[in-house]
Amino acid sequence: MNNVVCPHCHHSFELTEAFRHQVEEQILTDIRKQHAVELAVKEKALRESQEQELKLRKVKNELDEEKRVWELEKIRQMDTEKQKVREKTMEEFQDIFRLKEKEKDMVIEGLKKSLDEAQRKASVGSQQRQGEVLELDLEQHLSQSFRDDEFIAIAKGALGADIRQIVRTPRGTVCGTILWESKRTKNWSQGWIGKLKSDGLRDGADLLAIVSDALPESVTHIGQHEGVHLCSTASVIPLATLLRKLLIEVTRQKKIGENQTDKAHQLYTYITSRDFSSRIENIINIYQQMQDSLNRERTAYEKMWKQRESQINQLLNGVGGIYGYLQGVAGPSLPSVPGLELPDS
């Protein structure tokens, strides 16, 4: 038998199967109610927790949105400030550029006036002094090119041409004389030929040559006219080179023996012929064309290099000015840029 003692009166009574089943049912009911209450409390707490989480997430989303809006606004403000700085910098550059342009125009105008004045003074200068400068330049040009030869400048006022060139071999053998006359006028004068021939007879010169940019219509750069060799200023050295070689060859033929006299005479006759001057003129024309082409190419490349150098300098100056202005505004917070900072001492 199953006896149960009452905890209050301490009375012992028999626990029947029905009563035990009823007690168990009551206990289970109480447990279910307690569980239901606890479950309701937990569900309520869960709902409250979820609602609180939703509120927090909503607040967080609102804060995130406000942060994004704030950051976007700050970026826009910074862009606006940068644009203002750029515009102000560009205005300052434009002002500086306008002032530089005016300054450059003033300098150019001053240089033009100075140049015009210098040209005016030069144009009224002594023709004799100009001739002396041309003669000295011709003598230096020839003496530097033919160091074995002897050059004698004929003094002003004395009878004769301008320069006497005594042709020598590297061993010092005298091969002949070339008499040079230099002219600096705009128009050709036939009288030059007769005067130089007279000077040549008096001097005993072997060959006669006139240097002038004003030449007869039949001569372009180099040629022969009535037994006198003619050439432009740019063709002096080619003509002198050929005349020297011919004089040296004539001397060499004479040295070989008397039986070579006819060959020397033939050679001399050839160098004074029209055929010789035509061939020399053709060589000089080709030389002049090549020289002109080379000068044009050099001028074009130098112009292109100068333009690129000027553009690079302008770009570097512009960048340096912008960096300097921004550094003055931002201070140490502006990152350094290699190439725009002074080297460490």
In short, what is this structure?
The protein contains six helices and eight strands; from the N terminus they run ββααβββαβββααα. With 345 residues, the chain is α/β, with parallel strands linked by helices.
CATH class designation of the domain at 128-282: Alpha Beta
Order of helices and strands: EEHHEEEHEEEHHH
Low-confidence stretches: none
Q: Report the structural category.
A: alpha/beta
CATH topology of the domain at 128-282: Trna Endonuclease, Chain: A, domain 1
Q: Estimate percent helicity.
A: 55-70%
Give the strand order, joined by hyphens, for the main sheet: 3-4-5-6-8-7
Q: Helix and strand layout, with pairings?
A:
Layout: E1 3-5, E2 12-14, H1 17-123, H2 127-145, E3 150-153, E4 163-168, E5 174-182, H3 191-203, E6 207-211, E7 222-225, E8 228-231, H4 236-256, H5 261-271, H6 274-330
Parallel strand pairs: 5-6, 6-8
Antiparallel strand pairs: 1-2, 3-4, 4-5, 7-8
